[in-house]
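Figure 2 data, in text form.
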Amino acid sequence: MVQSKKDKSEMTLPRVQKSGELAILSTIRARAAGIPHRGVRLGIGDDCALLRLKADEELAVTTDLSIEGRHFRLNWHPPESVGHRTLARGLSDLAAMGASPVAAFLSLGLPRHLTQPGKASGATSASWVDRFLDGLLNLAVEYDVPLAGGDLAESPIAIADIVLTGSVPKKQALLRGGTKAGDRVFVTGSLGGAAAELAALAKSPRKFARKTIASQNSPHLYPQPRVAQGLWLRKRGLASAAMDVSDGLSTDLAHLCEESNCAAEIDAEALPLGAGATLELALHGGEDYELLFTAPKSARLPRSIAGVPITQIGRMVPVRTNRARVTLITGKSSQPLEPHGWEHFS
């Protein structure tokens, strides 16, 4: 009998019963075995995984690092959320390229107590790493991406490094550098909701947990990568450039403008604000994992793609010596929009 994705995501899976690297790796291998994929010829168990692509496809590869204390906190984020977010970050990168997910590779560095049943925070007896895998593998089932390999090591803090591979037809990947003056600027979904939730979480972790965590309808704890939307845009050839909004609209749009050698004008009133978001959070908050893309004036775009709204927020314009790379238009006034999103070492 063929199970639905929902059924598969709710299967009872083996837990880590014994401590030690080999026992944990054995459990991960058993849990990952339930997500087969045509692109993986050989998965966990050998020195390397073997991936299979069609002759007319290219391999897209992305990597994202999640570090305790920087990207998540053990006393703020439930383990399921950390696992979900770890995979979602990489899937969002594939979505921005219009790539179909092929396989994931996970490297974990963990303190010993996070591998032991009954030692993790929460009411269940499952270990932190088991609950982390619940979040990651449930999302993997939803997007049909198998866990094909990785590494495991003891570490003084929790670290999760994800590598995602995807396939895309040759010379059809969505890039940051394809837009030109006159193109329109769009975003999927809404902006600033994840940053608003993070602010609420930082202010009162316990109150936020009671209100939000159980529902799993949280743009910060459980972001939804826009894979279907990226595939739709790529297959129809409507987007001239694309990237995901992970560091904040002001920062990510500046990257797109730089790669395309263009400037942009953004209409403040057009920005689709997420729940609880201010204009400031929508511009600079980050971790929305929406798609930011441009399209020619002639392109006919629907109001939504696969159930997610599409909003035009501005336009691309020529670069001028005395004009900012990105300009924010508010009513009848305008001002330079400096990139104040997330940036390491800033």
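Caption note: Residues 184-336 form a domain with the Phosphoribosyl-aminoimidazole Synthetase; Chain A, domain 2 fold (CATH 3.90.650.10).
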